[in-house]
Design brief:
46% helix, Serine Threonine Protein Phosphatase 5, Tetratricopeptide repeat, mainly alpha, 145 residues, 8 helices, 2 domains
Length: 145
């Protein structure tokens, strides 16, 4: 294990011996690494067989967290590992693509669409990524699908 990964685990109160387990605050290491855009830690956790179906307190998965961080490296690693790109959170039914579209993350939207994310999924309020597109570029990207 690289020293910077060991340090990250310790600084965030994760077990060095069992790095894929939640910390004492109930935080999943895969979610936090994704949220922080730490692709090095994320790839290490994936090598340690971290579960891809873990979620945060809002029902968002690690892909959502990587989109929040605007981290193309983390997004690519998670997609390559087989994460559910169309996971809908429990709070609103939003997917990572819906979140990215609504928050103006143009490169993330482009990356998710290229990887096969479904632009037709709807939130609990019947909104799609197209409905919530926050920039003209995002609107055009989704319309092209």
């Amino acid at each position: 294990m690289k020293p910077e990964i060991r340090d990250w685990l310790q600084n965030n109160y994760f077990s060095v011996a069992r790095p894929v387990l939640k910390n004492s605050d109930g935080i999943e290491p895969l979610i936090l690494a994704s949220q922080q855009g730490r692709s090095d830690v994320l790839r290490f956790l994936l090598e340690q067989n971290a579960a891809l179906d873990v979620t945060d307190q809002y029902g968002n998965n690690a892909l959502w967290a990587a989109c929040y961080a605007d981290s193309s490296d983390c997004i690519a690693a998670l997609v390559d590992a087989g994460i559910d790109m169309n996971h809908q959170n429990t709070a609103s039914g939003a997917t990572a693509l819906i979140f990215a579209a609504s928050s103006g993350r143009e490169k993330v939207v482009e990356q998710l669409l290229a990887a096969g994310a479904d632009p037709g999924l709807k939130t609990h309020d019947d909104f799609t990524a197209l409905d919530l597109a926050s920039t003209r570029k995002i609107l055009k990207l989704i319309q092209a699908c």
